[in-house]
Amino acid sequence: MSCAYFNAGVCRSCTRIEQPYADQLAAKQARCATALAEFSRIEWRPPVASAERAFRNKAKMVVTGSAHAPVLGILDGTDGVGGVDLTGCPLYPPAIGQAFAPIKDFIVAARLSPYDIRRRRGELKHVLLTASDQDGHLMLRFVLRSTACLPAIRAELPRLLAALPNLTVVSANIQPIHQAIIEGPEEIPLTEEQTLTMVLNDIPLRVRPRSFFQTNSVVAARLYATARDWIAEMAPSGLWDLFCGVGGFALHAAEVIDGPVAGIEVSAEAIASAEASARQLGYAQVDFRALDADEFVRGRTDVPPLVVVNPPRRGLGPELCDFLADSSAQGLIYSSCNPDSLARDLRRLSGFVPERAQMFDIFPHTDHCEVLVLLVRQAD
Predict the structure, then answer these.
(1) What's the CA gap between 322 and 341, in Å, rounded?
(2) Is 257 found in the same domain as 134?
(3) Who contacts 191 (Cβ-Cβ below 8 Å, separation ≥6)?
(4) Hey, which of 271, 291, 320, 349 would disulfide with 296, CB 3.0 to 4.6 Å?
(5) The pLDDT of residue 119
(6) Run of H or E residues at 361
(7) In angstroms, rounded to a whole number, what is the distance separating the alpha carbons of residues 214 and 191?
(8) Which residues pair with 71 in a beta bridge?
(9) What b/e sequence results for 52-62 when a residue is b if at least 16 CB atoms lie within 10 Å of its CB, and e otherwise?
(10) What is the pLDDT at residue 27?
(11) pTM
């Protein structure tokens, strides 16, 4: 795929964009297979491809320029002050791309000064925009250094909502620290609605401002559907979904098993979203809890036959791996965004044998991907 920004040398985020997409897929598949080569029983399913463009459901834009002429994009890499406008990035769908101009107009009207990294002054650091693939509804977050400009934002917000009728969720995130951290701990709602609904495989997943959600809804839907099919095949009497986020795996599992399903996630906001989805679907057998996964499993003996895990890039860690290895669980489904930490964890999950794996290209034009692995308890 051709990209004017890449060709001009101003953005190199998509490191593999010059490589034909079929070759990208093959390279990622080979990378994953090499990382897990020691597990010889793995049957590799064909990789799940993505669209090459307009697949991202979110944009994370650094704000530079001035209050009179804001720039949304990335830093230009020179003095830490200048920026590159990326509002025409081909990875964004129309709902996102068409929102940038009204957002720039809003910044000008509200006189929001972009944060100057070198001088450590200014207020607006980032604009974070998320779009629902189904209806084009938008969630907009302003990342601010302080609350000083909130009155101006509130005063001009009605005009922005009129200019963007599909904008349903707006909030301000306060990030006062001068560090390369995108968001801070305080989120201030600016609209009554604070939930954006993403529908994947007819399952409504509610995303709140601080909730994690995959950046590629179409491929994420294939990931969840595949896990659901594998769960149905194993027909467990119960299931845990550890690191459940807004409940994607747990809610898909509830479609195909009759027993109890527990979803565990450290973020209380994500759990609140997951609970709302479960209520809408009438899934009374699904129990979501805001807990750290290690804390949840510690000392438990009531482990269900099947456990789904979807940890961050660092992996499960020794304590959780050892717990699962010593548990009564008969199967594991592991969703990983890091083949290296995945391989390390699989080595530690003694008693389980990886039997099946599939790569999902959630991040085209980069070296990143998601891998789903099915493990079964080895017979004594």
Answers:
(1) 15
(2) no
(3) 157, 161, 168, 169, 170, 171
(4) 291
(5) 84
(6) none
(7) 24
(8) 64
(9) ebbbbbbbbbb
(10) 96
(11) 0.95
* Residue 42, in any domain of the structure: yes
C-alpha–C-alpha distance, residues 226 and 229, integer Å: 5
CA distance 147 to 123: 9
365, 14 contact by CB (below 8 A): yes
Helix axes 21-35, 339-348, angle to 10 degrees: 30
On whether both 134 and 243 belong to a single domain, the answer is no
On average, the pLDDT of the chain sits at: 95
Q: Is residue 208 part of a domain?
A: no
Q: Which residue has the tokens 């080595």?
A: 347
* Contact indicator for 344, 334 with CB cutoff of 8 Å: no
Residue 164: other Cβ atoms inside 10 A: 19
- Answer whether residue 203 is part of any domain: no
Q: What is the dihedral of CA 249, 136, 17, 7, to 10 degrees?
A: -160
Can you say which residues are annotated as belonging to the binding site for S-adenosyl-L-methionine?
A: 214, 243, 265, 310
For residues 77-83, give the mean pLDDT: 68
Taking 90 as the threshold, does the pLDDT of residue 78 lie above it? no
Residue 81 pLDDT > 70: no
Which residues participate in catalysis according to the annotation?
A: 337
Strands 70-75 and 83-85: antiparallel
Residue 136: CATH number of its domain: 2.40.50.1070
Domains contained in the chain, number = 2
- Give the per-residue pLDDT at 379: 77
What CA–CA distance (Å, rounded) separates 126 from 132? 20
